[in-house]
Amino acid sequence: MLDEHDHRALGQRLDLFHLQEEAPGMVFWHPRGLMLYRLLEDHVRQRMREEGYREVRTPQLCSQPLWEQSGHWENFRQNMFCMPEGDRHLALKPVSCPGHIQLVQRMAPSHRDLPLRLGEFGLVHRSEPSGALHGLFRLRQFTQDDGHIFCAAEQVEAEVVRFVRSLKAFYAGFGFDDVQVAFSNRPAMRAGNDALWDQAEAWLQSAAKQAGLQYEDQPGEGAFYGPKLEFVLKDRLGRAWQCGTIQLDLVLPERFDLHYVGASGERLRPVMLHRALFGSLERFIGVLLEHHGGALPAWLAPEQVVVASVGAGAAAYAESLAARLRLAGCRARADVRDESLSKKVLGSHEDGVPFLAVVGGREVESKGVRLRQRDGSQRDLPWDDAVAWLSAACQPAVAG
């Protein structure tokens, strides 16, 4: 029996998603859950546009030589889903990095194109042991908000600083005010020589200091291709969740002989930065649900307003108000069932709806609305004021 605060139980109660044995480690998203999923995507997509990223999409299935060149075949093969094709193998992508490198090679950038920023909501697959699977926290299929920056050496530190300086406000918009940072350096099993790692670690540490970050060292916890800064969120129970990351990579550009054309026509090697805000969208949703106990911030609630009619004569008024709220940008519906108000209040609470607009004969006559919030507080407002207040209350409180 799941604890009521477990994200899997919350997912069932809020009708967001389910998991079943026929698809181990993969999620069946319900309409309400997919709405939440899309809201997270849209939030990151808006940020990508503001920061000059170009969204791309890369193939799910790539052949063995690509993974050999990237180093994943040697360093990550045990976590990849592979299938034979003649004398070689194909593999479902566990990451999007090699695909983005292929795109940059085709773009053949010059120094004028840098920094070149690519972003993808990359659906990835990893062969996790069945005993390690745990709800949305550990899956075999999930989506990364994957971004890669290809830049000149002299642009590296500015790009890292640019990324990390706005993260605090970004996470605060989801209700996470305690963000810690860890620096992970070279692991024992890695690609690239010590000179590359010395340079990568020095650049990343310098950028972290420029950004004013205080971090804890995590010796040996870097990716096989480079060191990384990891951003760890503390939830309301004091648990730590590693979510965002930025990684400095001098290895993959070398392995793929990636280059750009310099100001004098020379071939120069770019630096590659790997960055993510959520890490895994699915995992972040699980963290969000448990952090908020299912009572998501209004801007993230799949349904933001339920307009509940009291008495048969108020049904048309409730439908009109719900339609007006939708035009104002709220996710609203009318509850005009022939049920008591107490049942409608309970239903909206169970569904995690932050605002209930109650309309009965008195509200129809006065062209007003009685607003009820999660904490039980109530107030009466005229129609237009209620629409304006709800429209504002349903927007993100903090811009990421």
Automatic annotation (TrEMBL):
One of its GO terms (molecular function) is metal ion binding. It catalyses: tRNA(Thr) + L-threonine + ATP = L-threonyl-tRNA(Thr) + AMP + diphosphate + H(+). Belongs to the class-II aminoacyl-tRNA synthetase family. CDD domains: ThrRS_core. PANTHER family: THREONINE--TRNA LIGASE, CHLOROPLASTIC_MITOCHONDRIAL 2, THREONINE-TRNA LIGASE. Residues 6-297 form the Aminoacyl-transfer RNA synthetases class-II family profile domain. GO terms for biological process: threonyl-tRNA aminoacylation. The gene is thrS1. PROSITE patterns: AA_TRNA_LIGASE_II (PS50862). It holds the Pfam family tRNA-synt_2b. Its EC number is 6.1.1.3. Transmembrane segments: none annotated. One of its GO terms (cellular component) is cytoplasm. The keyword rRNA processing does not apply. InterPro entries: aa-tRNA-synt_IIb, aa-tRNA-synth_II, aa-tRNA-synth_II/BPL/LPL, Anticodon-bd, Anticodon-bd_dom_sf, Thr-tRNA-ligase_IIa, ThrRS_core. It comes from the Bacteria. This is Threonine--tRNA ligase. Keywords: Aminoacyl-tRNA synthetase, ATP-binding, Cytoplasm, Ligase, Metal-binding, Nucleotide-binding, Protein biosynthesis, Zinc.
